[in-house]
Design goal:
Strand content: 15-25%
Radius of gyration: 17 Å
Strand order of the largest sheet: 3-4-2-5-1-6-7-8
Length: 249
């Protein structure tokens, strides 16, 4: 049965979708069967992997209008694409009983088909994020090496704590990942030190460097390993994947 991981941060521009696509692709290259669920109305993960056919998307499945229908991206990697219609889901589901469990119920029907299910969350804490945290076993927080980014984590930590106590008692923090990192910058090293102290073993040793290839890859509809396999971005996410796998029980 698959382990379900949400990639989440209520702050945008932290490399959330890049991390989702790159980690999913890296795991698939390691021979793991992976499903990526695009739960962001912007559908950036779907577009980043070249999926533009949204006839059977996550919005329709959450609404009960269709079955959850993964689309094959490449060997060992499938995706359930998103839709801009997700923006109105919270309003439409106001009176729906158990609306926080919609995604969990959908995923339950296909968990046996995968080793890992990775959810790309929207940069906000609403019904969509609650569904992701309800459905997942663990979550990863990508964060920029800035002090303001650290301060913003307190809100997410509070939401996760409430979800754990009220909805999903098994929920755990998988790890915190620093993106757009430079060893040459004192501020970045200071933030890394602060995060390491605060999260006590949950901060990944792997960091993701600033890399132009990571910014270019989404426009080609390819993950970083197909677009630029020898880039720093590919190297960093492969190291993250190996560290991630080393911590799986």
């Amino acid at each position: 049965m698959a382990k379900v991981i949400s990639i989440i941060n209520q702050k945008g521009g932290v490399g959330k979708t890049t991390t989702t696509c790159s980690l999913a692709a890296a795991l698939s290259l390691k021979g793991k069967k992976v499903l990526l669920v695009d739960l962001d109305p912007q559908a950036n993960a779907s577009e980043s992997l070249g999926v533009e056919d949204y006839d059977n998307n996550i919005y329709q499945a959450l609404k009960g209008e269709s079955e959850i229908s993964p689309i094959k991206v490449m060997n060992n990697l499938d995706i359930v694409p998103s839709s801009i219609d997700l923006n109105v889901l919270e309003h439409e589901m106001t009176n729906e009983p158990g609306r926080e469990y919609l995604l969990k119920e959908l995923i339950a029907s296909i968990k046996d088909n995968y080793d890992f299910i990775i959810i790309d969350c929207s940069p906000s804490i609403g019904l969509i994020a609650l569904n992701a945290l309800s459905a997942c076993d663990t979550f990863i927080i990508p964060v920029l090496p800035h002090h303001l980014s650290i301060q913003g984590l307190s809100g997410l930590a509070g939401v996760a704590k409430k979800v754990k106590s009220r909805i999903n008692p098994k929920l755990k923090l998988e790890g915190v990942l620093i993106t757009q990192f430079s060893h040459r910058k004192i501020l970045h090293r200071d933030v890394q030190k602060a995060l390491k102290k605060h999260f006590k073993g949950r901060l990944y040793d792997s960091t993701i460097r600033e890399n132009i290839s990571l910014a270019e890859a989404p426009s080609t509809g390819m993950d970083i390993f197909r677009y630029s396999p020898n880039s720093n971005g590919a190297e960093d996410y492969l190291k993250l994947c190996e560290e991630f796998l080393s911590k799986q029980s």
